[in-house]
Every structure is written in structure tokens, then in C-alpha cells.
Amino acid sequence: MLANPSFVAKNQLNAIVTRALIDDDFKAGILNGTRRQKLEEYPLPDTIQQAVLEIKADDLNHFIFKMHELLRL
User: Fold this and answer.
1) What is the pLDDT of residue 35?
2) Environment class of residue 20 by beta-carbon count within 10 Å: exposed (0-12), middle (13-18) or buried (19+)?
3) Quick one: angle between helices 60-71 and 7-22, nearest 10?
4) Rounded Cα distance, 4 and 6, in Å
5) How far is residue 47's CA from residue 37's CA, in Å, rounded to a whole number?
6) Distance of CA 65 to the CA centre of its chain
């Protein structure tokens, strides 16, 4: 289980979700296997970055649901 994400980490997770909603290229990268490269722009703690990388999602809605679970920790 992850430790409680910091305020900054939660803001970064929100930024990732928001960008995925408005940027089709970013969304495609998040869903098609280049997620690690897309996340390089966001300073996330290693444990949270790993949790985001481990999300298995076929579509944006499922990815956002899983990100919301991380935000609730």
C-alpha cells in the first residue's frame, strides 16, 4: 500500500488526468505503452510514479478511475 501522497503529488496526479482529458497525444501515450515517457514531465515520488505505471487501463475512463483511487490514499 502506498503512503499518503503529498499535496504536491496529488496536484501532479490531477494535472496528469486533466492533460489526458484535453491533449489527445498525451492521452494516447498514457494508454498505449509510452506512459513512462509521458510521466517524465511530472515530478512524482518513485512509489507514486510506479503505481501510475502499473495501472492497467484500456480506455481513459478506466485510467481516470484508477488515478482517482491513488488520489484517495
Assistant:
1) 95
2) buried
3) 170
4) 6
5) 16
6) 10
Mean pLDDT of 40-63: 94
Q: What is the mean pLDDT of residues 57-69?
A: 95
pTM higher than 0.85 for the full model? yes
Res 1 pLDDT > 70: no
For 35-68, letters b (16+ CB in 10 Å) and e give beebbeebebeeebbebbeebeeeeeeebbeebe
Distance CA 58, CA 45 (A): 25
What is the distance between the alpha carbons of residues 13 and 63, in angstroms, rounded to a whole number? 11
